[in-house]
Amino acid sequence: MTKSKSKSKGFIKKIIKIFKFWPTQGENVEDLEKIAAQEQKQFPFEILVAATKKFHHTQKLGEGGFGPVYKGKLDDGREIAVKKLSNSSGQGKKEFQNEAKLLARVQHRNVVNLLGYCVHGAEKLLVYEYVVNESIDKILFKSGKREVLDWKKRYDIMAGVAKGLLYLHEDAHCRIIHRDIKGSNILLDDKWVPKIADFGMARLYPENQTHVNTRVAGTNGYMAPEYLMHGHLSVKADVFSFGVVILELISGQKNSRFKHDPESENLLAWAYKLYKNGQSLDIMDPTLVSSAVPDQIIMCIKLGLLCTQSDPQLRPDMRRVVLILSRKPATVALEEPTGPGYPGSRYRNRRPTASSSTAGTSGESNSRSFGSTTNTKSATATASTSGLKSPIYDPHGKRPVQD
């Protein structure tokens, strides 16, 4: 056990040394290959071909903007998930390198475990542990089996994802903003423990900056309005996405496809309307009736609304979220949430205090509108602590994807 831990620590130290400074694109793959080979993290291409039955369509688990994911089985009996870089993906190579760098350094119970990677000519692949119960998105919205997720499981999923995000935001080797927290990127293992997956869009977050302005990349229905419309990125963007996931877990409704109430623009607006009318429990998924803990559900609805507030500075950070979810509802005093954020909503842009390390906005105090239509163009990436600026749009950047 001690020998195994020492070896793991040695691998992490070497990875940190390699990525202490961001290498150039050419050096990136070479360095990854060198370290992986030394630590036996590099998988021979032939092994992955055999494990996935030549990447047969029956082994395919899914496909995103990055590329297809296949289930495989190694000779030693381990089940794996192999993410294959799509040759048609314009930004796929960068995302591949990004995910490999990040996950090689991330170790947490609620973050998916990267076993290794493979570079074979034009082929680039990431090898993960196989997570048996797939994603909460698939279970809730696509399998017809949402009843297997009773209230206790859903509550534990919220708590686990919150702990994973807290680790990424505050406790990892450097602060990481995931940028694409959603149901399909939260996998469940055989004990229903949630694991945050898919770091292809993640960004390292400078410790001495309150935010960065960056090219927009994410999934419609989960992106915070200040990020979607202006490319303004802080840890509060992940908090917003997490709030959407909370409300989806409680309601069984998908925000990006919400049609339950014709008078509400989306799930967030519907949940907020019912909350203000004293009818919070009306958003509860009917399959939860037999397992529901009403006080907990009401607390979580309020927490979800706090996380999705239009003003990013009013959203709680993940440390506070974890603390709230660890307590009994009767011992938690939550402030009243303001209106949820979505295209067309407003927030008041405030000047952050010196102690505000996770402030969502900065600069002159003014009122900002996010328009009534979804803008899917991408902003030129710049690091900034100045006032919120409208980005220069890059026609070659990655667009937000529909989920």
From TrEMBL:
One protein family per Pfam: Pkinase
Molecular function terms from GO: ATP binding; protein kinase activity
Keyword flag Metal-binding: no
Keyword vocabulary terms for this entry: ATP-binding, Kinase, Nucleotide-binding, Receptor, Transferase
CDD domains associated with the record: STKc_IRAK
Entries under InterPro entries matching the protein: CR_Ser/Thr_kinase (IPR052059), Kinase-like_dom_sf (IPR011009), Prot_kinase_dom (IPR000719), Ser/Thr_kinase_AS (IPR008271)
Domain of life the protein comes from: Eukaryota
Span of domain Protein kinase: 55-331
Protein name: Receptor kinase At4g00960
Species this protein is from: Olea europaea subsp. europaea
Organism phylogeny: Eukaryota, Viridiplantae, Streptophyta, Embryophyta, Tracheophyta
